[in-house]
Amino acid sequence: MHHLIYVSTATQPMSEDELMQLLQQSRRRNKSLKLTGMLLYKENHFMQVLEGDKNNVAEIYAKIEGDTRHKKLDVLRSEHITERNFPDWSMGFTNLRRWDLVNHEGFVPFLDKDFRSPFFKEHSIEAHALLLYFKNDPQT
Ligand SMILES: Cc1cc2nc3c(=O)[nH]c(=O)nc-3n(C[C@H](O)[C@H](O)[C@H](O)COP(=O)(O)O)c2cc1C
Q: Is the CB of 91 under 6 A from ligand 1?
């Protein structure tokens, strides 16, 4: 079992409909490849964790990398794991809008940080912790 966490920047701001479409498409494919994970969207940036068989993660990541809906992909973490952290999510999702940010402030460590902050690159375990926080509090 393997997991990969990356951050990226949306090419254009994503509407709610566009995000839902992206999610539907992702879930369909992930189910067929037994991939699980979580996707966060905040202020035009994505943070995503993909977990599953190493070859399947690599296959989908290659597709994701070529997707013109986002750019400047940066892998924070790519490691062997002993078990899935998001077994129930073919792809969980939370759109962190301003309202959510205010509500979660003080409860979710490092939520105030930009996804692209060097902090998450240097401490990728905190990126993982942030994704894990939304596992039990997903929007969709
Ligand atoms: C931020 C982001 C996350 C994505 N996550 C996934 C994903 O988890 N699984 C997936 O199959 N596609 C995901 N996609 C979509 C892929 O880039 C690609 O469009 C999709 O795999 C369809 O490929 P196809 O054209 O070969 O059918 C994501 C795209 C973006 C922009």
A: yes
Residue pLDDT, tens place only, 71-107:
999 999 999 999 999 999 999 999 988 767 777 777 7
Element at 133 (helix H, strand E): helix 124-133
* Structural domains present in the chain: 2-136 (3.30.70.100)
Pocket-testing residue among 9, 12, 19, 22, ligand 1, by greatest number of atoms within 8 A of Cβ: 22
Residues 14-34 have pLDDT tens digits of: 999 999 999 999 999 999 999
Residues facing residue 49 across a β-bridge: 5, 38
pTM: 0.94
30 lines ligand 1 (CB under 6 A): yes
Cite the beta strand spans of the chain per DSSP E.
2-10, 36-42, 45-52, 70-80, 92-95
* Ligand 1 atom with minimal separation from the 64 CA: 17
CA of 125 to the centre of ligand 1 (A): 24
